[in-house]
TrEMBL record:
Taxonomic placement: Eukaryota, Metazoa, Chordata, Craniata, Vertebrata
Alphabetized PANTHER family for the sequence: WD REPEAT-CONTAINING PROTEIN 64, WD40 REPEAT DOMAIN 95
Descriptive protein name: WDR64 protein
Entry keywords, A to Z: Repeat
Signal peptide: none
Xref: InterPro entries: WD-EF-hand_domain, WD40/YVTN_repeat-like_dom_sf, WD40_repeat_dom_sf
Amino acid sequence: ALELIDFKNALEQFHNLVEKMIIQKTKESSGLYTKDDDEIDYEKFYTTTQTLFGPAVKDQNIQAFFRKIVSNPDEKPEWPEIFGCFLGESDDMSSPSKESMVFLVSEKQQITHSVVKRKDVIKGIVKVPLLHFTVTASQKGVLTVFSKQSSFSYSFCFHQDTAWIAGCDFLPNLKYVVAVTESTVILWDYKSKESQNNGFVIKPMKNCLLCVSTVTTPDHLAKDTILMGDDKGYVYLLTMTNDDFIMKQSKAEKESQFKFMDSESFNIPKRKLHDDWVVKIKYISALKRFASCSTDSINSFVLDDIKRLEDNLPVKEFSVPKGVNAFTYCGKAKVIVTGG
């Protein structure tokens, strides 16, 4: 508690230092500033910051912070920047017990297990915080689950057809890994101890699937909803329950590693929201909305309720020249950032 009070006091003094410096730089740019004993140059800024925070700050971070204020006093940097959040390769990694007084930085852990073979690439990577593991999917069909807690990994190779995997996600209620290829939806039961028949395939899908995402809701019912986007601008809504794995499976083909499900046996609402490829889709639980983006210049980005996929009401969208290739949502800042 005492350390926290000391830090708050130091932070308040640091804010005052930055405010004085901004006022000084603003006056300098307008020609109204006259030098006096209170002038804050780099040496004074460096010494004061080191006195306030001690070894928790590094020279390069102080220098970068000072440079930002000098170059643009109107856009002052945030105070966490003075500490630096990540350990670089040049930093001393030999003492993991060393802690910053502001940020506890964990060391990076490298996964040495090879999940893809030569000429294969990772097409999807999903973190599952509640279960402490990560799911990856490679282009040529290797699905892998890495556990953080017990250092194990499960791998599963999908080689039913020549179609490449386009993306993956995790179904939190049914506990399945979902992935999409050009013409199929793959559901992998990673918990199954059987080397064969531990997966389901829904096919055929009429258009080429390009992305997939799970709708996360707090109700914890024994069902999951999957969002998918294709190369014709359609967004699909597929809801699955445990009963579907029993009732809708067809006979597995000879020497097949999967049980098949006919896509015609499912009610899969879809709606054309874009006039080009749907390159990314995501359910943003904080907003209770789904978002999809496309290379379409007119209907580039859509953000709306998933109910819009089952009706014809207008959707909230905006246009970006040459479309949107990627997006993310920041809950703290309440902004969506897009990349075209």
